[in-house]
Design goal:
It comes from Pristionchus entomophagus. It holds the Pfam family p450. Keywords: Heme, Iron, Metal-binding, Monooxygenase, Oxidoreductase. GO terms for molecular function: heme binding; iron ion binding; monooxygenase activity; oxidoreductase activity, acting on paired donors, with incorporation or reduction of molecular oxygen. This protein is an alpha+beta fold and 497 residues long. The chain folds into 2 domains: 43-103 and 373-435, Uridine Diphospho-n-acetylenolpyruvylglucosamine Reductase, domain 2, CATH 3.30.43; 132-368 and 444-497, Cytochrome P450 (Cytochrome p450). The chain is built from 19 helices and 11 strands. The strands form 4 sheets. Strands 1-2-7-4 form a 4-stranded mixed β-sheet. A 3-stranded antiparallel β-sheet has the order 3-11-8. Strands 5-6 form a two-stranded antiparallel ribbon. β9 and β10 (484-486) form a beta hairpin. α8 runs antiparallel to α13, α11 crosses α13 and α14 runs antiparallel to α16 (356-368). The longest helix has 32 residues, at 2-33. The model has no long low-confidence stretch (mean pLDDT 89).
Length: 497
């Protein structure tokens, strides 16, 4: 009798839990079903239409966004299997989530980065994120950026010297740009010379590339979404790659701390502040902010990840747009030439401020081909957006690629036109119709760093070379991954000036 009572109590407990779970699921899906979006198939949702590559995914999203906007909707729902994504389609629909001071939690797609980046600034939330953001903001002060520009200039010179021997035939310039960006971020973030440009087979360089490939497979190969499949098929590769990347960072941090403690590093004198790496500033902050070595590693690896993958994507797309729009390239070169003439001198911060047309070229590139094509928030409370309630636990995808291709904000939106960013043409748009670095509280802390690097590296390439291709700009399809990846790479022919 006692056993029957115990069994009945246990059964009743789990039936009650199941009831409340199903009630919550029903409530959630009732709200989500009201949001317009493409019709899905039972169990699979829109997964078959999305396809198994980032390129088919991007094409489907762009098509669906156009269809929903044509119906007068500014919010869209897409089903990835059982998982719903709510996607705002214009600046006005983005405003509630970007302006929110409560909904700051990142979405599920960031989970793959936690073993590498931990809960650093990119992924952390609530109190930890706020304290880290407050702590790190001064490290991107103008005075610190001046010192970073010197390092950007040094590695960009190496890049154009390497490219000097590559002018005889078409080449994919993207890997060269990426290795240069990796050298820049390693120097500025850790104060260490990686020299990826001369040693592309360095273990850390290879590990970063392999991790990006693994991230693509986990995101876009459907059977990797099945619980347990990844652990049994690819987890060992992920662990090996992560050990290489984090091991490298940990060693650099330990060596740098030792140098600080021994007094081997001296930042006094006329060059004060200019030679400090991001890591040096974190080490100096560690006592005041109670940072452990692991806390420092999280932030350094976050800066390493965000500071080379996104900028290299942005630079690659700028070079592609210049090669496929020769009249724009001509104007950009004339501006660069007016600043530098035939000299081979270094580029300074003042020089970067003196090239407004090149900045418009970069902005227009980031509109058509945003280096970061999307970010996500998981709402922790029921969230109202216009006429809709987005239930707690749902991911909102802030898809820059879609918002930047809103024909109402940007007529003829696939046309490359830097003059869109003349002051007179920019004032009529909603503030959130153009958000290459996101916006609101969780905007990109390193956006000025990224713009400086993109402008400087492109200026160096234009000083030395003209870029040519017989392909059209839109023949190079874009894939929305962690960054916006070009299907063809960036195949151009360089001609020495």
């Amino acid at each position: 009798m006692l056993l029957q009572l115990i069994f009945s109590a246990i059964l009743l407990y789990y039936l009650q839990r199941l009831f409340f779970y199903l009630k919550g699921v029903y409530r959630k899906y009732t709200f989500i079903a009201k949001v317009p979006g493409p019709p899905g198939k039972f169990l699979l949702g829109n997964a078959l239409d999305i396809g198994d590559t980032s390129f088919s995914f991007s094409a489907a999203l762009l098509r669906w966004a156009d269809e929903e906007r044509a119906k007068g909707h500014n919010l869209m729902r897409v089903w990835v299997g059982f998982r719903p994504l709510i996607i705002p389609l214009n600046g006005e629909a983005l405003k509630p989530i970007l302006d929110s001071t409560e909904e700051l939690t990142k979405g599920d797609d960031y989970d793959i980065f936690i073993p590498w980046l931990g809960l650093g600034l990119l992924i952390s939330t609530n109190g930890k994120w706020k304290s880290r953001r407050r702590m790190l903001t001064p490290t991107f002060h103008f005075a610190m950026l001046d010192g970073y520009v010197e390092k950007m200039d040094k590695h960009s010179k190496i890049l154009v010297d390497i490219l000097h021997d590559k002018t005889s035939e078409e080449l994919d310039i993207y890997p060269y740009v990426k290795r240069c960006a990796l050298d820049i971020i390693c120097d500025t973030a850790m104060g260490t010379e990686l020299d990826a440009q001369h040693d592309p087979n360095d273990p850390y360089v290879l590990a970063v590339g392999e991790f990006n490939q693994l991230a693509r497979e986990q995101s876009f190969v459907w059977y990797n979404w099945i619980p347990g499949v990844w652990r049994f098929t690819k987890r060992s590769d992920e662990v090996r790659v992560l050990d290489t990347m984090t091991g490298f960072t940990k060693k650099v941090i330990a060596d740098r701390i030792s140098q600080h403690q021994s007094g081997a590093l001296n930042f006094d004198g006329d060059e004060k502040g200019k030679r400090k790496a991001f890591l040096d500033m974190l080490i100096e902050m560690r006592e005041a902010n109670a940072l452990s070595d692991e806390d420092i590693r999280e932030e350094v690896d976050t800066f390493m990840f965000e500071g080379h993958d996104t900028t290299s994507s942005g630079i690659g797309w700028v070079l592609w747009c210049l090669a496929t729009n020769p009249e724009v390239q001509k104007l950009a070169y004339e501006e660069v030439s007016a600043v530098f003439g035939d000299s081979d001198r270094s580029i300074t911060v003042e020089d970067l401020k003196g090239m407004p047309y090149l900045e418009k070229v970069i902005k227009e590139t980031l509109r058509i081909f945003p280096a970061v094509p999307q970010v996500q928030r998981k709402v922790v409370n029921d969230f109202k957006n216009g006429d809709y309630i987005i239930p707690a636990g749902t991911d909102i995808a802030i898809v820059q690629l879609l918002v930047h291709h809103n024909a109402k904000a940007f007529p003829d939106h696939w046309k490359f036109d830097p003059e869109r960013f003349d002051l007179d043409n920019s004032t009529t748009r909603h503030a959130y119709d153009y958000i290459p670095f996101s916006a609101g509280l969780r905007n990109c802390i390193g956006q000025r760093f990224a713009l400086y690097e993109e402008k400087l590296m492109v200026a160096w390439i234009l000083r030395r070379f003209s870029l040519h291709t017989d392909r059209t700009m839109l023949s190079n399809t874009c894939g929305a991954e962690t960054v916006l990846r070009p299907l063809l790479g960036v195949p151009v022919t360089l001609r020495s000036r």
